[in-house]
Amino acid sequence: MENEMAGKLPKDILDVFRKSGIESLRPAQTKAIASGLLDKKSVLVCTPTASGKTLIAEMAAARSITSGDGKAIYIVPLKALATEKYRDFREKYAGLFRVALAIGDLDSAERRLSEYDLIICTSEKLDALLRHRAPWLSSVRTLIIDEIHLLNDPGRGPTLEILITIFRQLIPRLQIVGLSATIGNPEELAEWLDAELVIDTWRPVELKKGVYLEGETEFY
After folding, report:
1. Domains, the chain, ranges and CATH?
2. pLDDT tens per residue across span 180-198
3. CA atoms within 13 A on the CB side of 89
């Protein structure tokens, strides 16, 4: 693991990974690093559930923050998921960088967030922050979008697309990290994002397909 991240992340961050039980990187993580994840390049990661996408996001955020490059924003689709990641990251990176949760009042610029390094939020909240012209947004350098396939969702898709477009205009050298297990047109989306495409099929548990009938399952 250390060889693949040598010189890209500080020892304190690597120690956090080891304490979390990470001894070696999964295929998607290795591919993401090879595609320039730790060199500020945008990546679109399309891999199965539980293949290690969250760590890819953490590596990008940690690089941006610890190098002094700028803040990182982590967009998730649900408030419950945002709260879960906030609690996890706050404990995991305590003493290394400051993590904030932003899912509440949509009619606020959240000036307190200027004091934090990693902000976990929903797309609706980030949209509100943009509309209120929160001054600290200009210091963001890495934008992580979990479940980026929701760009195709009739409800959330337009907001997410506008957010990405505005941020790319606001911050020309913005690093975008898109994560999804289900993208129907990954090549087109990667081209639109100007991102390197990372595709991998490895999963921790083999997925089998079969037919269940009258108490018996036949796999194929």
Report:
1. 2-201 (3.40.50.300)
2. 988 889 999 999 999 999 9
3. 26
